[in-house]
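4.2 Preliminary Data

To establish feasibility before requesting continued support, the project team ran the inverse folding procedure on a target of 56 residues. The structure was first converted into the token representation described in Section 3, and no sequence information of any kind was made available to the design step. The complete token record follows.
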């Protein structure tokens, strides 16, 4: 976990963009933002396809 002194001032940002594939890493990024107090409406999930696969 990041130490308190090393944390960025998340209140300085209006929007947070997460490249979201639905995998464990992007889900962890989303949950970390929420656990740090980022409001849901400030988070944008952008669908990100992995492994060279396009839309179904």
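Position-by-position output of the design step:
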């Amino acid at each position: 976990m990041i130490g308190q002194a090393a944390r960025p001032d998340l209140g300085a940002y209006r929007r947070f963009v997460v490249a979201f594939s639905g995998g464990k890493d992007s889900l962890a990024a989303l949950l970390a933002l929420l656990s740090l107090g980022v409001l849901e409406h400030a988070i944008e999930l952008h669908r990100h396809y992995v492994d060279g696969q396009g839309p179904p």
